[in-house]
Design a protein that fits this description.
The protein has 4 helices and 2 strands, in the order E-E-H-H-H-H. By secondary structure, the protein is mainly alpha-helical. The protein starts with a strand and ends with a helix.
Length: 113
């Protein structure tokens, strides 16, 4: 990366500009950004300054959503849900539990890694 500088008094300052990339970042991308900002500051700054942060966050978001769907399918096969018509509250509780399990796995594997 080639840097140019401007002079202000006796000092040289780099001409740095962060380019805005209009990508929507969802839940997992925001969690990843917070994790990087708080726990991997150097890596976060490097990605931010090179303009690759939004691309990385969008990739994490896409992978996480895909992984949650895949995990939900496999968990539904492994732990079948009760009948929705006979006991809708038990079915909803079951689906919420499976979703929480899938999200916990995804957060550990992709977001907080």
């Amino acid at each position: 990366m080639e840097l140019t500088y401007y002079r202000k008094g006796d000092y040289l300052f780099p001409n740095l500009a962060v380019q805005d990339e209009p990508q929507t970042i969802g839940k997992y991308g925001m969690l990843r950004r917070t994790y990087l900002k708080e726990n991997r500051k150097n890596w976060y700054q490097s990605m931010l300054m090179s303009g690759r942060l939004n691309q990385h966050l969008a990739q994490i978001e896409e992978e996480a959503e895909s992984r949650v769907e895949t995990l939900l399918d496999s968990l539904n096969e492994k732990f079948p849900a009760p009948s929705k018509e006979q006991d809708p509250l038990a079915w909803a509780a079951h689906q919420n539990n499976l979703t929480a399990m899938a999200e916990e796995i995804v957060l550990k594997e992709l977001v907080y890694n």
